[in-house]
Amino acid sequence: MGLGKIFGSSVKNCTCVYLCLQILNTLATTTILAIESSCDETAAAICVDGKILSNIIASQSIHEKYGGVVPELASRAHIQNIVPVVQQALQEAFPVAESFLHTVDAIAFTQAPGLIGCLLVGTQFAKSLALSLNKPLIAVHHMQAHVLANLIGENKPDFPFLCLTVSGGHTQIVLAKSPLELEVIGQTIDDAAGEAFDKTAKLLGLPYPGGPLIDRYAALGNPLAFKFAEPQIPALNFSFSGLKTSVLYFLQKQQPGFIEANRNDLCASIQYTIVQILLKKIKKAVQETGIQQVCLAGGVSANSGLRKGLSHLGEKHGWKTFIPAFEFCTDNAAMIAITGHYKFLAGHFADLSTNPSARAESIKLLSY
Ligand code: KG4
Ligand code: ZN
Asked: Which atom of ligand 1 is nearest to the CA of 195?
């Protein structure tokens, strides 16, 4: 039946079609299926109009016994996990239907940076899905996604804001001008904050990843028990390799049994030093930019000392601070989904020839 027959006259027809389109427009939703596989978490999430409906993460415990992530084992685990993880994300988001795959508007995936074999699994899976469903692909930069995790939920910062992104591979101060315009204004010149936690934890005989364990023991110790040197690095940059060396030399001078007897104090002092290095630089960034909205992002933002430290600093100086919920701090696909959402709205799509990249752009100004 033609539309003219339904609406009676051509004038009415035009008005009604317009109204129908308006209603359809307001009802139209943007559904993103997102996949994250850059390191040792296989994750999938569904986001509808910027709201996260599901966020599934399969962590890989196999690496614990090796003291760090073994890339080949991580890639193999991604291959095993990716189908059930995506299936679970769909089922949780749309529990009443068997599969809502056809309602997905685009497939977002982590393209860079990360372990290349791991990224390849997610990229190939996303490309195959996009090809078979005839849906657009969205390539997401993992570090941009960590920053945009702050846009999940009701309490979000306005633009522009500053973000301290602290993960296992990166430490950056990012000036976010819009969801798609992020400028790195400071970064580590050697180890990342997460590496500082993990490497010093290893010196204390703790298993990988040591960050969460240092956090746990630190809660029981005295942060001022031992003093470790803080590096003097110019501008808004960081350095963490000296801390690891200073902890190593300090431990070498001690008697056997010292670590076991002082574990809580050692953890509290190491955590305190790392947190002070980070907070001093974010304070400098606020002074230099005049931007008083400060966010945290990345795995290390799960650290309780850092979360408390930033909140106190914010209260003291009148800044607005934003800290993502724990599940959006460490690697997850919800952050890939929210980034995919903004890229979808801006029409930033990737084609099927897109390849993953192990490295992030090294240039200072990153327009992701
Ligand atoms: O962002 P993420 O999950 O993965 C990367 O993209 O690197 O960050 C992982 C890092 C690891 O170094 C881990 O030790 C650290 O985050 N981490 C923590 C805590 N939870 C995770 N570091 C300190 N305290 C924590 N509670
Ligand atoms: Zn990460």
From this structure: 12
Superfamily name with CATH number, domain 31-148+331-366? ATPase, nucleotide binding domain (3.30.420.40)
Return averaged pLDDT per consecutive 10 residues of the chain, 368 residues in all: 35 48 58 96 96 94 79 93 96 81 94 95 98 96 96 96 95 96 96 96 94 98 96 95 96 97 98 98 98 97 97 98 95 98 97 90 44
Look up the pTM and report it.
0.89
Nearest atom within ligand 1 for CA of residue 193: 12
Token code pair at residue 117: 């074999």
List Cβ neighbours of 287 (8 Å cut-off, separation of 6 or more).
none
Quote the longest CA-to-CA distance of the chain.
Answer: 95
* Cα 88 to ligand 1 centroid, rounded to whole Å: 25
Residue 230, amino acid:
E
Ligand nearest 192 Cα, by number? 1
- Delimit the domains of the chain by residue range: 31-148+331-366, 155-323
Ligand 1 proximal residues by C-beta, below 6 Å: 39, 167-169, 194, 197-198, 209-212, 215, 298-300, 302-303, 330-331
Question: What are 182's two structure tokens?
Answer: 């992020």
- Which architecture characterizes domain 155-323 according to CATH? 2-Layer Sandwich (3.30)
- What spacing in Å lies between the alpha carbon of 169 and ligand 2's midpoint? 7
